[in-house]
């Protein structure tokens, strides 16, 4: 089978994970990179032996490009995705989908219109060995009914991190620690817990007050239709990037994840179920190892014509939760969900 032709838009930090993943696959060939910074685009293209562009619209004219990765600032995800889908390209976009619900809706509308191509959203942590094991226990019921969950993210971001023009602003980033760093953990909670019944949250800017207009700390309480409840806490005000913590409490046991290490506690005994997989990301090691796994999975679905499971609608779930936590914090009210409507109380 002919390798898929790949283009990556955005040559910033996260693009490196995508580029290395594509380079290691026989099923795909990196043909182009795009960045408005021509020097960065040229250097990246030289490193990966491909073409470069400073205007993504020019790249979209190429018939040999099958899949486009969107690795740009949040506020650019929606327009670039819409244009790429309209050009007949499959799209795999980094989280979050967009910076507002309205922008994300344009992506969903475009995907619904252009059914010959697929939209995928990066939530690579669902592919982590520990995540897969937790999902298996939830679905199997072998530990009894899931009763409660918690997710904790204590990371560090300083003023230097927010020196990038688009970060730290509501209009361009769409939020702070919640939409950027901890959306992955929130996604795991909603993936494991199922459909939400309600959500309530509070946000604040504790360590970076005066530096950013968005939040650096947030906590939330989630209630699922199944009756399961979850607590969630995230901050960029800690001294280091600590391993993410997720805990699942069942009737007959408890799963505890710290980083990629997963333990089962049952009848007073603790069993190691999963250990970390070493990656080569250095100081960015907390990003995990599963970008490549998700990218390969997306390509396999595209190549075989099967519907990708983390599509626009699935990726929108965690994004909606993020937006509703912000709304709940502003209004002081709990967001209630029913089959077709969202209300506050």
UniProtKB/TrEMBL annotation:
SUPFAM superfamilies: Glyceraldehyde-3-phosphate dehydrogenase-like, C-terminal domain, NAD(P)-binding Rossmann-fold domains. InterPro entries: Gfo/Idh/MocA-like_OxRdtase_N, Gfo/Idh/MocA_Oxidoreductase, GFO_IDH_MocA-like_dom, NAD(P)-bd_dom_sf. It comes from the Bacteria. Pfam families: GFO_IDH_MocA, GFO_IDH_MocA_C3. Residues 5-117 form the Gfo/Idh/MocA-like oxidoreductase N-terminal domain. GO terms for molecular function: nucleotide binding. Residues 134-255 form the GFO/IDH/MocA-like oxidoreductase domain. This is Gfo/Idh/MocA family oxidoreductase.
């Amino acid at each position: 089978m002919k390798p898929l032709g790949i283009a990556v838009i955005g040559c910033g930090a996260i693009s490196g994970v995508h580029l290395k993943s594509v380079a290691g696959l026989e099923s795909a060939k990196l043909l182009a990179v795009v960045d408005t910074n021509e020097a960065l685009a040229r250097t990246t293209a030289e490193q990966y032996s491909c073409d470069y562009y400073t205007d993504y619209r020019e790249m979209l004219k190429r018939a040999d490009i099958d899949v486009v990765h969107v690795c740009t600032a949040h506020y650019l995800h929606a327009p670039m995705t819409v244009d790429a889908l309209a050009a007949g390209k499959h799209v795999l976009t980094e989280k979050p989908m967009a910076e507002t619900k309205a922008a994300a809706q344009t992506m969903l509308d475009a995907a619904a219109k252009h059914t010959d191509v697929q939209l995928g959203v990066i939530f690579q942590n669902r592919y982590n060995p520990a995540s897969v094991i937790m999902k298996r226990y939830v679905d199997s019921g072998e530990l009894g009914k899931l009763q409660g969950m918690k997710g904790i993210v204590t990371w560090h971001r300083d003023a230097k991190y927010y020196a990038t023009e688009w970060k730290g602003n509501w209009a361009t980033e769409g939020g702070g620690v919640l939409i950027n760093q901890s959306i992955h953990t929130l996604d795991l909670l909603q993936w494991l817990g199922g459909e939400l019944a309600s959500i309530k949250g509070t946000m604040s800017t504790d360590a970076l007050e005066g530096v950013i207009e968005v939040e650096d700390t947030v906590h939330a309480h989630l209630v699922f239709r199944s009756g399961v409840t979850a607590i969630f806490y995230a901050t960029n005000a800690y001294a280091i990037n600590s391993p993410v913590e997720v805990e699942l409490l069942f009737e007959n046991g408890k799963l505890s994840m710290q980083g990629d290490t997963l333990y089962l506690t049952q009848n007073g005994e603790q069993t190691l179920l999963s250990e970390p997989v070493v990656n080569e990301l250095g100081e960015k090691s907390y990003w995990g190892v599963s970008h490549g796994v998700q990218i390969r999975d997306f390509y396999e679905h595209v190549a075989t014509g099967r519907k990708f499971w983390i599509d626009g609608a699935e990726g929108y779930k965690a994004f909606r939760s993020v937006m509703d936590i912000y709304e709940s914090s502003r209004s002081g009210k709990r967001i209630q969900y029913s089959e077709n409507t969202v209300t506050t109380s």
